[in-house]
Predict the 3D structure of the following.
Amino acid sequence: MSTERREDPMPAKAKTLLVWLVVIFLIYAIVSNPGRSADVVQAIWDVISGAFASFGEFFANLTS
């Protein structure tokens, strides 16, 4: 077992700053254009639900 410690490619403070910048951007995008934001969320939801439906169909076809 190796005792070497891998260096983290990004310091913790940089990660925290990046997360806050993304959160602030998302809030700005929602406030500045709520209709478009709702369309984006709906599109993402459609992709996710379509993927789960496809998985379900795949496993259903395995058993038949």
